[in-house]
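Complex 240.
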Amino acid sequence: MRFVFLGPPGTGKGSLAWLCEQRVGLKHISTGEMFRQEIARNTPLGRRVQRYVMNGRLVPNALVVKVMVSRLTPDILAKGFVLDGFPRTQGQAAGLDRALAKYLAPLDAAVYIDSPERLLVRRLTGRRVCSRCGANYHLRTMRPKRPGRCDHCQGRLIIRKDDEVETIKKRLAIDRKAAKPLLAYYRRRGGLARVNGTGHIETVFVRLMRLFRQRGWLTSSRTANTARRGNDRAQNRRRN
Ligand code: AMP
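Predicted structure with adenosine monophosphate bound:
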């Protein structure tokens, strides 16, 4: 099955997509994470996208679509995937549909994870990331064992440049503007669904699995293994 998760930054798309990979076997692909890795490795792509990512601005459609489509290998198309943070504009959504049509592997659904803005700001301002290994934490919901230090590598926890308050506000405003035509695109196209993104991530995940089953997007055998798992939660620290 092939899904995209839509919704503003901080709504939990990344955590939900990661849980889908761990528990349902769908490949999780995040454009934001992909770009941050390219920047950290100082690759030609990383250098091209750096100024956009650092300032919370959108990377141009043509470049994002090209990079994303190149990651959709035959294996991933067959296994099923969840795209997180892509598409963000109507142009990207249309580009994705065109590419998937060529592979005869159309998208099954676009799931919008809905959360009120005050919750998004609270989530994003509390986010911390390890300066060494990139693991994610949150001051309220995913605290490290030792304040300011990563549980995995003891690296120093920092605020991501694009999680600073002013940049967050800019990212949310940019996202709001792009979201309307994007949602209208999927409404016209069909296959748009909404999930309430408030509450603990496990609660939201249960809602998501209920939706998947109700719509017949995933069989009950594939979603049977989706109950809460303690070690998932520990590993979940690595995701936002
Ligand atoms: P995220 O982690 O999804 O919030 O993405 C971090 C940053 O990467 C964004 O603020 C953008 O600069 C860039 N980015 C990620 N995905 C996209 C996309 N689909 N289109 C354009 N820019 C993107």
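The two ends are 23 Å apart (CA to CA).
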